[in-house]
Amino acid sequence: MAAIPHPPSPFRGYAAPSLSRWEREKPPKAAKGEGRRVAFCCLAFLTLAVPAESQPVVDQRQRLVAAKRDAVIATRRAEALARDAAAERNAADKARAEEAALAARVRAAEANLAAARARQAIVTRLLADQQTTLATQQAPVARLLAALTALARRPAVVAIAQPGSIDDLVHVRAVLGGALPLVQQRTDGVRRQIARTRGLERDAAVAAAALRRGRAQLETDRVALATLEAAHRRRASALGRHAMSEEDRALALGERARDLVESLGDDAVAQATAADLAALPGPLPRPLAPGTRVPVPAAGAYRLPVRGRLVTGTGEISDAGVRSRGLTFVVAAGAPVVAPAGGVVRYAKAYRGYGTIVILDHGDGWTSLVTGLAAAGVRPGERIAAGAPLGRAAGGEEPRITVELRRRGRPVDIAALLG
Prior knowledge:
Blueprint: H1 21-25, H2 30-46, H3 55-87, H4 91-153, H5 156-161, H6 165-279, E1 309-312, E2 327-330, E3 336-338, E4 343-351, E5 355-363, E6 366-376, E7 383-384, E8 389-393, E9 400-407, E10 410-412
Antiparallel strand pairs: 1-2, 2-9, 3-8, 4-5, 4-7, 5-6, 6-8, 6-9, 9-10
């Protein structure tokens, strides 16, 4: 260790009284012991080193940095998901986006809680290290102050009267004069350490408060997430039950509509038969002999009412479990629809689930049913020829036109009659 330079002594020019050899060789008593003790305290205080930061604090700082990074990432993801949820128009997708955003908020709260715990651990560790450092630095200061106090209490006359006291005083004064700036620097350092300790105590209180807030926020977000998930499950269950009931209702209504359409066809056939019978001048003709074929329209007398892509044939089973009684075509929006054969319009109205339907009576028990029109261009009772316009197809995406042919109420395959 480098020697401490001695500053100019304030006792320069003072003539010390001459001492005998016995007095010079005589060991000093209390004054010399006090001086050595003061000098030793000064040297011990000046050589005190501040301990470096411990390894656990470094590890905790690294964990704090990682926790803060995770918190920032989770918060940004939560904000992005919240924006997506706000911009989502579909109810189901919006619910899933809201649930994902809330889950991200929970993860962000967990990351913030981990950061708060790491911050509190760091502050606690630093506070303990600071208290240890402060105690270590205060010990030599306390010993130095005690030695100086003891030296100051001795009367000056006693110091002069004792052999060797003047030399000791000069030496101690020189040591104190050189050490005074460093003593002031170290005492300033001790005061700064005390201020830092108080600051760490305040930081510890702030970290504890942040930890409490993080726990409360995490609990709030978890409760909100559980509530939202329960609400979504209840809504999904209710929608599922409602969808099943609506599907059953749709099937029932479809069958009922089929029955009504068939009954309309039967009524039209009955009316046509009654009109034909009423127009006969004589008695009813005899039944046809066994083996006689039922008259059918000539080949080419029947045509398709619309041009389009065939999607369902006669006798096919639909997704709803209903057997098709005719042909269904996908056509262009607003495509013209014509009469497949000549006859009398018996029905031309909109029917729920089928759009506008038209029933044509071709005579001799033959009827045609055309569904899916946007509006009818004919009126009941009107006689039209084959190819006459009935209306136009509906708009929208892939409108469908269905045509059914019946003989006295029973479906007939149209493919055999097409020219």
